[in-house]
Amino acid sequence: MRVLIYHNDAEQWRNILLERLPDAEIQVAAGSGNPQVDYLVAWKPPASVFDEQTALKGIVNLGAGVDALLQNPSLPRGIPIVKLRDAGMGELIGDYARYGVLHFQRDFDRYRRQQANSEWREVAVVDKPDWPVGVLGLGAIGTRVAQMLAADGYPIHGWSRSPKQLEGITCHHGDHGLDTLLRQVKTLITLLPDTPATRHIIDRGNLAKLPAGASLINPGRGTLIDEPALLDALGEAESEGRLRGALLDAFPSEPLAADSPLWRHPRILITPHMAGPTPIGAAADQVADALDAMSKGKAVETVDPDAGY
Ligand code: GLV
Question: What is the pLDDT of residues 283-295, one digit of tens each?
C-alpha cells in the first residue's frame, strides 16, 4: 500500500506509522511532484495535494473534526474518509472542561476580580449537585467529557441531533431538546462539529435561554458561536451581563487576530486551541488500523460528508 502524509510533523507520523505498517510505502508530502498513492493521511491539506492525486482509495483525517477537509475545494467525492475517534483527546478535553467548570463553580473568576481590588471576601459555594452542566455534541469526545463530569458529581445534560441514551447523562435531542437543556444549565460546553447545521448555533436567541449568570466553555469549533452575540451577553467588566464568563479554545479564524476584542475582555479566558492535542500513539494505532482495513477491503467507520462528521 502506498501512503502519502501531509502534516506539520509528517516525519514523526511517517516513523510511527512505519512501526505499525512495516510493509507500507509511506512518503511525506512535498510542495509538488508527489508520487501517486493509494491513501492520503493528512491534517488540513491544501487543494494542490488532491489536484495531484488521481487514484486515491481512501483518506485518513489526522484530527477529530473534518470541517477543514470537507471544505477543501479539490476533495474528491465518493472516497471513504476515516477520522480520529477520541484517540485520547476525550480525556484531555475532559480535563479542560473540568478546569473550566471549576473555574466558575468555585468562583475563581470572582476571586480574580476581587484580587485586583485587594478584596478579601469569601463567596458561598454552590455544590456540584446544584450545578447542572450541558454538553452539546455527544460524539466520542462529547460523550467522554460528559461522563467525566458526571463522575465528578455534576448533573449532566447532553444534546445531540438524533436521540441517544447514555448512562448517567440526561440526553436531549432536536430543537425542543436544545431549548430544554439551555434553560437549565449553569455551564454550557460546546463540542459539536462545524457543519452548516451547527454554525452560530450559540446565537443571541440561544444565549438568551441560558439562566442569568451561566458560563460558556468552547473547546469545539469557533464557528459554533456568534461572537457579537457572545460579547453582548457578557456585558462589561463591572456589570455582570446575562452570561458570567467564557473559556474559549477555538475561534473561526486561528490564530486569533491580535486586535480581536476577545483577547482583552475581562470575562473571557482564551487558550490557543490546546484543549485536546492529538496523542500520537493512540492516534497512530487508529490510523494504522484504518489503512490496514481499507487495504484489505474490510469495513471501516467512515465520515458522512453530508452530515459533516
Ligand atoms: C482538532 O481540532 C481536531 O479536530 O482534532
Answer: 999 999 999 999 9
